[in-house]
Amino acid sequence: MADPLSLVASAIAIIQGGEKLRKLVRKAQQLNKVPVEVELLLQEISEARTSFTSLQSTVIAAAQGARPINFEALRSLLHQYASLLDSMELLVDKYLLKSPKQDAEGGDERAGMGRSVVRLGWVRKKTKVHEMQDKLRNVRFLIVDTTYRRERKLRVSGSRGSYYRIQAKRVTTGQDRGNPDNSRGNDKGESSESSSWAYTIDFHVRPMQVCLPQHMDTAVNDMEESRWHSSHAISWIPFQHKDCDVSSCKRRSQPMISGAFHLPHWIASRAIILTLINGPSISVSLTVAHIVPPDSDIFRYIQTGNCSRLQTLLLKGQASPADMIESLYGTLDALLFALNCNQYEICQLLLSWGADPMLKTAPS
């Protein structure tokens, strides 16, 4: 009769052996996907090079424009972006692609530039590649965010306890087309960053209709902002009609106040937006926005102006015009981000998919 302990030990050994075999199979399957992943990496590097050229031109144009920007900070970010790109290309060339001599002796699946993939090199450097990709996307986002951030002049007029009242003067120009409300006379309250993990509430005013770009003249808007160092922050703006003062413009602005309630990230990446429209009669709408990472595909394709890939994402339901990102200075939806990047074909595509309806009545 067999010893029960021996049977148990044998069963455990068989189970452990099966688990090791499954791990080996999974690793083999991952190795089979290596050429595709390296090809996608090469494609991303190529897009990043194109994006760098576009960002460089945008920064130079912004520095020569009327709107002040922090050019030194942007130049440093551009240098960091270029260095990361060079490092990624060096890593790919050294560890992920075989040399032409190795290919002549017998290569693997082709990945790019007529060279084949080193599978074990990808296994060894995969974590490093992902770290560099994250850094590259973060720097790219910071460049865009810093370029289109309007300069503030803040004067703290009083301080008592945990309460601050800030008088802000903000200068906008016709070049700042990322804000649909920068026609003359339309006030806007900027969102305030929360100092707590719980949530933020911000209110701002945007017109329901947008004037022609040439009507977006330079304007100076005064704003009173009250900030509480707790779990929320509120900005307030007079809720009233102010029309475009260009004589040829017949459109009346319909301001609206939007309050965004940002849920904690560990609960859901969502923002509940309550909108109060001051039209012929006051109306209220409630929407739920999806907060996505700044390096998500939809915003990457918007930045690079890749209409075909963005269209594919929308068709597959992998992205939506309602997707939003949280920048260091506020929340941007897809259409507003596209306007900031001067990607007008992308704007037309997003509008055709039902993006921000207040732009649909804008004169063409």
TrEMBL record:
This is Podospora anserina S mat+ genomic DNA chromosome 6, supercontig 2. Residues 167-194 are annotated as: Disordered. The lineage of its organism: Eukaryota, Fungi, Dikarya, Ascomycota, Pezizomycotina. Residues 170-183 have a biased composition (Polar residues).
